[in-house]
Fold these 4 entries.
Entry 1:
Amino acid sequence: SPSGGPAEILVSIPGKIERRYHGVLRVTPLPSELLLLIETDREVAVGSIVAAEVIEQTPIEALKAQAVVARSFLAASEPRHKGFQFCDTTHCQFLRHWPPPDSAPYRAAEQTKDLVLTFHGSPFAPLYSAACGGRTRALTEPDPGSRGYLYRSVDCAYCLRHPQDPKRGHSIGMCQQGAAGMAAHGASYREILDHYYPGTSVTTLPVR
Ligand SMILES: [Zn+2]
Ligand SMILES: [Zn+2]
C-alpha cells in the first residue's frame, strides 16, 4: 500500500506457485536467490493457519479451539529459520490463505484474540492430529515444544462412535474430527481444549 502498511501481496512464479499473503513485503537479495519476507500480524497468521487447517462445515467452536492452538504455536515457537521466524511449508505451518473477514476462520481468530494454551504459566506448541482412532496418547518423553507438558490419554467420543474411520496422525493432543464432533454436540472451544489438553489453561497474551 502507498502508506507502507499491510497490504494484500500476491507472490506468483508462473507455473510453479501462486500465493496470497496479507502483510508487509520485504525483499532481501541473497547470493543466488531472493528471500521474500512477509511481516504478518499474529492474528492474521492465526486466521490463515485455521483457514489452511479447516475442513468444510467444521463448527465454529472447533475452529476457535484450532485458533487457540495455532496462536499458542506461534507464541511458543523459537525462530525456526535464520533471519525470519516461519516458512510457509509444512516445515513450520501453512500460511497460505488470508481468510476474508466474513469467513469462519477469521471469526474464530477474532473471537479468541490473544488467547493461548499454557502449561505452568508458559505457552507451549500444542500437538494435534486429524483423527485419533478412539483414544489419544500421552507423550512417552518430553517434546521440545511441549515445555514439560506430557499430554494425557483421553477417550474421543466421536472416534469411538465411528470405528470405521481410520486413525490419521500421531493421536497426541486434540483430535480434529473429535473436536468437530464435540462442537456439533454443543461443546465450547474451552471445553474442547480442556478435554484434549487436560491440566493446561487458556491464558491471555502477553503471558507475564
Ligand atoms: Zn520452516
Ligand atoms: Zn478422535
Entry 2:
Amino acid sequence: MSLEVVNPVHGKLPITKPLKGVAGKTGLWRTERPVVDNGKCTRCFTCETYCPVNVIRVEPETGVSIDLDYCKGCGVCAEVCPVKAISMVPETG
Ligand code: SF4
Ligand code: SF4
C-alpha cells in the first residue's frame, strides 16, 4: 500500500496515513454515513487525524468536509469527536 508522510498537528510528531482510494471507491459498500454539525464543531482536527482512510478535511472557516466516495462508514470520526459533532446515520437507498 502507498503511504504518505503527513504532519497534521502543527509541526509536532509526523505520522503516516494511507492514501484514499487504494482499494477503490469504498463508499459504495458503506451502510452508515457520518453527518457533521459544523455549528458544534470546534475545528480541533481530531477526526481528520484519526480517519483511517484520510477522507476528512477540516478548514478553520468552513469546518469539516468528508469525501463520501471513499468514506467506509466505520464511525471512528464520530467516536473520537470530543464534542459529538459527528453522527452516524443509516444509508438509504
Ligand atoms: S466514518 Fe470512518 S472512513 Fe468515514 S470519515 Fe469517519 S473515520 Fe473516516
Ligand atoms: S473532531 Fe469534532 S470538533 Fe474536532 S474537527 Fe472533527 S467534527 Fe470538529
Entry 3:
Amino acid sequence: MVEVPRLRPEDAEAAVLVDVYAAGVSFPDLLMSHGRYQRKPPLPFVPGVEVAGVVASAPAGSGFRPGDRVAAFIRVGGWTDRVAVRPELTFPLPDAISFRSGAGMPMNYLTAHLALTRRGGLRQGETLLVHGAAGGLGTALLQAGRALGARVIGVVSTEEKAALARAAGAHETVLVDDWLADVRALVPGGVDVLADTVGGGRFLDSVRALGKEGRLLVLGFADGIATVAANRLLLKNVDVRGVAWGSLIEDEPAYPRHQWSEVSHWHAAGHIRPVDGAAYPLEQAADALRDLEDRRATGKITLTLREESGGPVVAEQNPNREAGTH
Ligand SMILES: NC(=O)c1ccc[n+]([C@@H]2O[C@H](COP(=O)([O-])OP(=O)(O)OC[C@H]3O[C@@H](n4cnc5c(N)ncnc54)[C@H](OP(=O)(O)O)[C@@H]3O)[C@@H](O)[C@H]2O)c1
C-alpha cells in the first residue's frame, strides 16, 4: 500500500473542503495514468479532475457555506472522500442536478462553452459537426451547440452510440466508416464549425469537411495527435484553432464562474441534460478507465463515493460488461 500525502493545513484554510459524493472519470485521467498527459503529477498520485458533493467548510468571502451542494474542478486528486478546492473552481450545483451528473459537468461543459462561444464563434443557424459525439465531451458539445442555435451533427462508431448521440441532442448522426461522404450529403457546402475530440487518422478529412471560413476546433486526441499541411488552410480559407480550457483558466481565474453561470442558464432553459454513463464504486476505478481506453464508454462515467442520500455505496453492474462487449 502506498501512502499519498494529504492536504497541508495551510492549503486547507484557503480552500473549500468538499465531501465527495461522485467523481468524474475523464480521458485526461486515463492519459495521466499512462504518463501521457501534458501535465505529469509526481508519483504516486490520486487521479480525478472533478467532483460533486457537499461543502464541509469554506473560507469567509468564498460565497459558500457548509451544507451547500457543489461541483468542482481540481485537476488531480478527486477520487477520494474529501477534497480541497480553490473557491473560484467551486460551482453551485442546482438541486435539480444529481451529484452523479454534476460530477461530470465542470470540465466537459465549460470546455464546450469555451470551444463554441469564444474560440469557435458558433452562430445561430450555423452547422456544427462533433467527433466522438457519444463521449463525455462530445455529448456536452452537442448540447452546447443546440443551446447556441446550431444544426448539430454527430460522428460516432456504432448504431448504439448514434442513438445515444441523437437522444443527447444531435439533429443527425453519421457513422465513422464513411463519415465524410455522409456529411457532404447532409451539408453540401461544408460545415461551419467542427469540434474534434478525436484527432488521429480522421484529421485531414476534418479539414476537407469544412465550408468556406469554417473553423476546426482541436479539442483532444483520443485517436492520437495529427498534423496538417498549411496550404490546405490557405486554399480553403479555413482556420484550425486550439482549445485548452485547463490552460486558459490559469490566466483568467474569474472566467469559469462566468461560464458556469451561462451553462446554468442553458440548463434552466432545458438545453443541457448531462448524459450519465456507467457509475462504478471507487474500488473499480481501473475498470472505469478501461472503458474509456477500449472505447466502450458512452456519456460520462463516474465513481460513486457516497449515495445521493448520504448512505453507503451500493455496487452497480456496468451494462457494457454485462453485455460482454469487450
Ligand atoms: N481541450 C480541452 O480543454 C479538453 C477538455 C476535456 C477533454 N479533452 C479531451 O477530449 C477528448 C475526449 O474526451 P472524453 O472525456 O469525451 O472521452 P470519451 O468519453 O472516451 O470520448 C472519446 C470518444 O472518442 C472516440 N474515439 C475515436 N478513436 C478513439 C480511440 N482510439 N480511443 C478512444 N476513443 C476514441 C470514441 O467515439 P467513437 O467510438 O464513437 O468514435 C469516444 O466516444 C480526450 O482527448 C480529452 O483529453 C480536452
Entry 4:
Amino acid sequence: MTLIPDPAAPPATGAAPEKIRCDACPVMCYIAPGQTGACDRYANDAGRIIRTDPVTLLTRALDHGGRIIPFAAATWTDGLVPEDSTVTGIGSGTTYPDYKPAPFIVSQQIDGADMVTVVTEAIFSYCGVKVKIDTDRHLGPEGATVRHQGEPVGHVTTAEYGSQMLSLGGVHHLTGGSKAEGRLTCAALLALCNGEAVDLTIDEGSTVTVQAGKPPIVDGIPERRMRVGCGSATIGMFASQWKGLVDEVVVVDDHITGVVSEHQAGKVIGWEPTGIRIKGHRSTPGRYFRVSEPGLGWGGTRLSDPLEILGDWNPKKGARPGLRLLMVSTTGEQYAYYELDDELNPRAMPLPPALLPTVALIDENCEPSLCTVLFMGGAGGSLRAGVTRNPVRLTRSVQSGETRLTSGGAECFIWPGGGITFMVDVTRLPQGAFGHVPTPALVAPLEFTLPRDAYLRLGGHDDAIRSLPDIIETGGEYPIAAKLHPKGGPV
Ligand code: SF4
C-alpha cells in the first residue's frame, strides 16, 4: 500500500495527525487516523493503511461431510490452522492498480500436487446478477425495467420453466446513468450478493422482495410453491391418477393449459372425449396457449374464475348432464370441481374426497419456491496482471481448465468464448464476502489455483510465492491487519 500524505493536510509538525491516502481503488481516499475510507474496507490505523476485514481461510471439515466451510473467528486461534486450509480472496485486499502481484500467492500441496493459489479481491465495474425467481406469477413484461428505490437497476429477461428471471446491474446501470442510478444499482447488487433482502419494483408489474436462498415475496405475499410443470406436463404426470375419478381435467397454466381428454397422455390410457371447448390458441391436441393474460391468478394467468376459459360444451362430442370436471392450477394451490347441469353449464360442487389426494399430489410434487442469485463478472481485465506478467496466458489457462477459478472458495461457472466471464451462486460463498467501492463497482473475492510449474510457465510472479505458514505467521500486505484484526478473526 502506498502512503501518500494529503497535500491539503497541515504540516506534520502541527497538532493534527496526517491523513494518508489509500490507493486500493480509483477513488484514492485520504483517510484520517482511526477512520475508514469511503468503502469501509480500508482504514488508517496509526499511520498505516489496513484492510478492515480478516482474510478468510477455508478448510474441508470432515464432520461437515467434506463441504467447504468458512473458518469463523469463533473456531480459530493462532497456531491451530489445519494444513489443508486455503486462503480465499475474502479480505485479502486488491491488486489495484494491478501493476503489482496479487496480495497472496500461496504455494501449497493439494492432494499431493505442488499447487499455487493466487488470491485477490477484484473490483468489478463489469458485473451484475442474474436472479431466478421460482414463481408462476407474472412479475412484469419481458424487457420491463426493474427499479430499486425508484432507480433503474436492471430488467426482466426471458422466463424459464417455472421461474421468472431478472438481469440486474451491468456496466450501463453502474456507470452509464445518473449518479443515483449507479449508487443504487451498486447497493442493490451488494445486498443481493451478501444474502440480504432487496425490494424491487417492475414497471407495469409487481413489487418483489428478493433474497438469495429464500422464497420471493410478490406484492407482499410470500411465494410458497414452484409449479410442478406446465399444464401439459402436469397432465402427462398425473393423467392416470385421475382416471375413473372424474371425466375431464383442465390444468390451467399461463404458458400451456392442458386438457386430459384431448392430450396424448389421456388418449393412450383411454380417456373419452367430453365435448369441452377451450378459449385459447390450440397448439397440439390437449395443449393450449394464451388462454388468458399473464397475471397473479390461476397458473400465472389473470384468472380468478377458471370457467372464463371454457366455451360451450358440445353434446355431439361427448358433453352430457352430470359430466364431472376438475380444474386445477399447476401448483395445486387452486382447484375447483364442477358437474354439467341439464343445460350443459358447469355447476360448482364440493371436491369429492377421492379427488383430494390427486390435488395434494400436485402440491407435493412442487418444489419450494426460492430466489437464486448468481453473481456474474468479467475477470479478464487488468487484475490478471496481479497473477501473471502475461495476462492472456491466464485467460487461456482458465479457459482450458488448467487453472481453476473459485470465488470465496465457491466453484464458478466459466463462460466459453473470450475473456474470463464467470458466474457463481452467492449462497456458496461465506457471508459478507462481497464489498463495494464508490466508483461504483462491486468487489468480489477470486482465487486462481493451478500447478506450480504451470504458474511459472504462464509468467507468474515467482518471487511473490509464499507458503501458507508464512502467510499465517506474518500476514499479508498489511501485517497489522492480519495479526490484530479488530474482530479477532483469522489472519
Ligand atoms: S474507496 Fe475504499 S478502496 Fe477505494 S480508495 Fe477509498 S478506502 Fe481505498
